[in-house]
Amino acid sequence: MIMVDTKPFAVVPHGKGFFCAMITEASPAIIMRVKDFGESDLLVTFFTPHKGQLKGVAKGARRSLKRFVNALDICSLINLEFTSKREGSLCLLHSGKLISPYPALRSDFGALSKASFMIEMTEILFPVGVADPNMFELLKEAFEAMAEGRPNGLIALIFEARAMALGGYGINLERCAVCGRPYRGEGMAVFNREKGTVSCLKCQEPSALSPAMTPDTVGVLEKMQGETLYQSKSLMLGDETLEELKSVLKLHREYRLEKKLKTAKYVE
Q: Are residues 131 and 254 part of one domain?
């Protein structure tokens, strides 16, 4: 079992005063990106439960892999030892021990493309300095589910709805954004893109930018936003519900994040 140390500095007595000594931390981490850095180093972006997204340098990792045996492949789950120098600076990576490589993600282009979409969403919703253990679990569970052979498209859809909610951009499904009448799962609802909520048919007409949603679609979206991925694994979606969800989530994502993700083409 890995103990996560969230205090990278210790105050150590020294003569008449004190100095701060950097402490090596150990944490589960998901590898998000890896690229060459200098002649023999690697620059690694990784995501942890309690510190979120971090970047660090693995010194000499391209020449000697003894400290990182098969551990620095993208999408891999590892136990990572690293030292944080100061907030906003690159970490120094000391060693990594592979927990799960999720090989199916690299042997299946569809799965890898969906994983790339999930990584990009995580980077945007939880930039450096913003941590959420629930987001770490969501990303890990999504990779595990796809590695087990569950439908990539459905996993990506559940991931997107839950990630947006965890990032503070959940769609409010409780009441009409205009008249305030509670939505009780009866009759069609209309997605209100500008307010990130729903409206009733009396207050808003459906359109290309404000698509209608059946009660089933609203119910499924509510579960996706509020449950863990494993709790949502039993969801059965009909073609109509699936298409409505894709349309609403795409409109919501692009409006709230104010950009089109580079990897969005893999889920649209």
A: yes
- The CATH number covering residue 176 comes to 1.20.1440.120
pLDDT digits (tens, 9 = 90+) for 157-212: 999 999 999 999 999 999 999 999 999 999 999 999 999 999 999 999 999 999 99
* pTM for the whole structure: 0.88
Domain total of the chain: 2
Instruction: Give the pLDDT band of residue 258 (cuts 50, 70, 90).
Output: very high
Q: Which of 101, 126, 157 marks a domain boundary?
A: 101
Minimum mean pLDDT among 87-91, 93-97, 114-118, 156-160: which range?
87-91
Instruction: Looking at the structure, tell me whether residues 151 and 228 fall in a common domain.
Output: yes
Burial (0-12, 13-18, 19+ Cβ within 10 Å), 182: exposed
- pLDDT band (50, 70, 90) for residue 39: confident
Write the CA distances from 180 to 48, 91, 195, 203, integer angstroms: 40, 49, 13, 10
For residues 28 and 48, is the Cβ–Cβ distance under 8 A?
Answer: yes
Residue range(s) defining the domain that contains residue 2 = 1-101
